[in-house]
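ESCALATION

Customer reports they have been waiting on this structure for their group meeting. Please prioritize. Original submission:
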Amino acid sequence: MSWIVLFFAIVFEVAGTLTLKFTAGMTRLWPTVLMFAFYLTSLFGLSNAVERIPVGTAYAVWSGVGTLMVFVMGVVWFKEEVTVLRSVSAVLVVIGVAGLYLTGSHQ
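Update from on-call: job pushed to the front of the queue and completed.
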């Protein structure tokens, strides 16, 4: 159950990060309110997930998978540039998260 909560925390973190694009430097009220709501929901989920998942593993998965998802969404939705270095860096994030997951204790 904690992994499901962590998954939804990641989804809300990604939503909050993508919403940043529409806040115009936090000068637009509703996108800014929505961004804060997404981030708070994400942190609430993360705080619940770390009750049963080791904090290092949970945070690595939360931040790493979130980073990868934002990278992919940036390319797909915002037409951000894909370079070899950016792609290799994304793969390294996945390797790092997988390494922390595989070498950690799983509750």
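Sent to customer with the following note: Residues 55-78 form the longest helix (24 residues).
Escalation resolved.
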